Amino acid sequence: MSKQKNSANTQEEKDKKEVEKLRDEKIENYGQVTLDHNSEKSKIHLLTIIGEIEGHDILSSNSKTTKYEHVIPQLAAFEDDESMEGLLVLMQTCGGDVESGLAIAEMIASLSKPSVSLVLGGSHSIGIPIAVSTNYSFIVPSGTMVVHPVRMNGMFIGAPQTYDYFKLIQDRIVGFVSRHSSISKSRMEELMLNTGFLTKDLGTILVGSEAVNEGIIREVGGMKEALAKLHDMIHANAASKDKPSKK
Asked: Rounded to two decimals, what is the model's pTM?
């Protein structure tokens, strides 16, 4: 009996180490992990949007990036997994590829499960639509958001069609943000085209409560507040499912 017990304990320790190894690899490779050791017994998927959001072009290995081809399948798996109850998105991004950022934002906005975002150091440019794509959003007191017009790198044709294309992309961003927050389209465009704030560029920098006052972010808070809000939303979601439907 003693040998069997020792053998079982050894196997349990091996299994635990294997789980911890897979968990560490998931964090290292994808910046994602499952939070399931809380007192609420809730199973939460943690997604981090860090560095530059990478598009179709592969960025330098020296750059911190969030790859949309990693994020989108993980979000699909999260939605498909019945055991997963909520999504927490941590934001620390300088922005990046517009199409990829909007794709991630649309994916998060289409989820059926409760979601909360938390802006840490910053969530600039195309990071703004991702920050507002969740059901509820927070920003830390020192967190920043840079609102500016759409830019394009490389050579492009200086023709009226070029301006129309830029305007189309910008309208998509402004429309998405206004639909998923309290800021109006006109105010969002005003912040984008502000000429009196940045010395060498158009746009506006919002810090902490300023982003809340403008209606982009819902509340100033940190990790404690974000997790507490998500747990409340998870409980409310479960209660609504348990409530018997009226005939």
From this structure: 0.79
